[in-house]
C-alpha cells in the first residue's frame, strides 16, 4: 500500500511539474536560447553540440568538439554555444585550445565568440594557455559582427 501511494505521488508530481530535459526547460531543449530566435539549422547544431557534451569520455568529447569547430558554416550563436560547451566540458587545456584555434582561424570567426572566449578565459587552468589564447586573438586581424556574418551567408 505504501509503495502504491509513493508511485501515485511521483506520477502526480511529474504530471503537475512537467519533465525537465536537463536544460531547466520543459519540452524544447533550445527554447529561449539566443533571445528566442531559432531556426532549424541552429536548433539541430545546438542539439549536436549538446550530444557531444553528453559523451562520457573526454577524448570522445574532444573529437566531437574539434569536428564541430572545423565547420565553415557555423553562425555566431552556434560558435558561442560551442565555445561555452567545449571550454566547460573538456578537461585538458590543449583540447580546449584546439577548439578555440579552429574557431579563430575560421573565415567566419565572429566577434560574439571572441567576446565569449574572453569571458571564459578562466576555464583554462594555466596562464600559459590563457596567454597563448590572448596572443592568438591579438594576432587575428578581425572578427565578423552579426551583419557581416549575414552578408557572407548570402554570398
Number of strands: 0
Which stretches are low in confidence, meaning pLDDT under 50 for 5 or more residues running? 4-27
Distance N to C terminus: 68 Å
Q: Roughly what is the average pLDDT, rounded to an integer?
A: 81
Count of discrete structural domains: 1
Helical region count?
8
Question: Which percent range describes the beta-strand content?
Answer: under 5%
- The rough form would be described as globular
Which structural class best describes the helix and strand composition? mainly alpha
Question: What is the H/E order?
Answer: HHHHHHHH
**Main sheet specs:** none
Rg computed from alpha carbons, rounded to a whole number of angstroms = 19 Å
Task: Summarize the amount of helix as a percent range.
Answer: 55-70%
Report on the architecture of this protein.
The chain starts with a helix and ends with a helix. Mean pLDDT is 81; it is low at 4-27. It has 155 residues and is mainly α. The chain has one domain (39-154). The protein has helices at 2-17, 40-53, 58-69, 76-89, 93-105, 111-119, 127-139, 146-154. The radius of gyration is 19 Å and the shape is globular.
Amino acid at each position: 500500500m505504501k509503495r502504491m501511494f509513493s508511485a501515485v505521488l511521483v506520477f502526480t508530481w511529474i504530471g503537475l511539474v512537467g519533465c525537465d530535459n536537463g536544460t531547466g526547460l520543459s519540452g524544447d531543449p533550445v527554447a529561449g536560447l539566443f533571445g528566442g530566435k531559432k531556426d532549424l539549422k541552429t536548433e539541430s547544431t545546438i542539439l549536436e553540440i549538446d550530444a557531444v557534451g553528453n559523451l562520457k569520455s573526454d577524448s570522445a568529447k574532444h573529437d566531437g568538439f574539434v569536428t564541430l569547430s572545423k565547420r565553415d558554416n557555423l553562425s555566431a550563436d552556434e560558435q558561442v554555444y560551442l565555445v561555452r560547451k567545449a571550454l566547460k566540458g573538456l578537461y585538458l587545456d590543449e583540447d580546449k585550445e584546439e577548439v578555440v584555434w579552429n574557431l579563430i582561424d575560421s573565415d567566419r570567426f565572429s566577434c560574439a565568440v571572441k567576446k565569449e572566449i574572453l569571458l571564459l578565459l578562466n576555464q583554462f587552468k594555466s596562464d600559459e594557455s590563457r596567454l597563448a589564447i590572448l596572443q592568438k586573438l591579438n594576432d587575428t586581424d578581425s572578427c565578423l559582427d552579426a551583419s557581416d556574418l549575414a552578408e557572407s551567408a548570402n554570398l
